[in-house]
Amino acid sequence: MNDKILALLRSSAAHVSGEDISRQLGISRSAIWKHMQELRQQGYDIVAVPHLGYQLASSPDLLVPQEISFDLNTKVVGKKIFHYDTVDSTMDIAMRLGMDGSPEGTVVFAESQQKGRGRLGRTWSSPKNKGIYFSLILKPNILPLESPKLTLLIAIAICEAIRKMTKLDCLIKWPNDLLINNNKICGILTEMNAEADRIKCVVVGVGINVNTSSSALLPKATSLKEELGERVSRTELAKELLRSIDKEYATFLKEGFHPFIKRWLKLSATSGHRVRVHSHNEYIEGEALDIDEDGGLLIRRDSGFIEKITAGDVVKIR
Question: Can you tell me the distance from the alpha carbon of 125 to that of 97, in angstroms, rounded to the nearest whole number?
Fold first, then answer.
């Protein structure tokens, strides 16, 4: 009912009378007052004027379903949204939901995480109400060995969404980091439950430093606020992210990974640079060239031999 009341308030630039709300939603005036109180407790600034009615003055910058869903207009991603104040990890919740039958496109948002994690056992700092932390459930009809492609195409989707909304020069460091001015702004983690030839569920976790202050950032990390010098609406950015992912995922399912290779190259922070990769307990050094049809990173060693990297940590040397 709160969602319906918000929709009515948003549909009018003027006040909406209690009588109109009561008639359209079929609830009593006392029930309306109760719902208005609930919405105010959630952070909505609703002004009530005698003889005129209610008006929505402002909405909270929270990653709640009613805010993210409003005017989202996606086909798959975000059709079902869960929101939590504080969790250990959105990844764990999303994986449980996915294995219990939640539909593809379900998203789990949290205002903070106590045990947010990244690749290779690293932690992800998740200060409350400062970043965007979510996990997305996907169930693509692809082989498990193709799952790394999902990380790369979602990196493209997020990178382009950040560029569109902020005009910042966001770039991708293979395979799962997004950088601005060589500092990390976003991390992506992909985990799956699969059989030998079938994916049951893929969960893609995303953490973005949005309004995090410099004092709360780890070394070599930045936030959109630090780069822009002003706060960014987490709600609007989250919606843009889901729209972008929804679009790119649909392209992937229809056309495969090939359309993304050239786009990834244009957004790459490492292609054309000398890099050192820590992969499978060895260090590989050379020039980062491209990615292939499998999403592997191609590196030309000093000997001229081109080596394909499927997993590892990349450091740009020059």
Answer: 24
DSSP string, 145-210: GGTHHHHHHHHHHHHHHHHHHH---EEEETTTEEEETTEEEEEEEEEEEE-SS-EEEEEEEEEE-S
Count the alpha carbons within 13 Å of 141 in the hemisphere toward its beta carbon.
Answer: 4
pLDDT at residue 88 tops 80: yes
Query: How many residues in the chain?
Result: 318
- 276 touches 285 (CB < 8 A): yes
DSSP state of 249: H
pLDDT at 12: 83
All structural domains of the chain with their residue ranges: 2-58, 65-267, 274-316
The class (CATH top level) of 65-267 is alpha beta
**Per CATH, which fold does 2-58 belong to?**
Arc Repressor Mutant, subunit A (1.10.10)
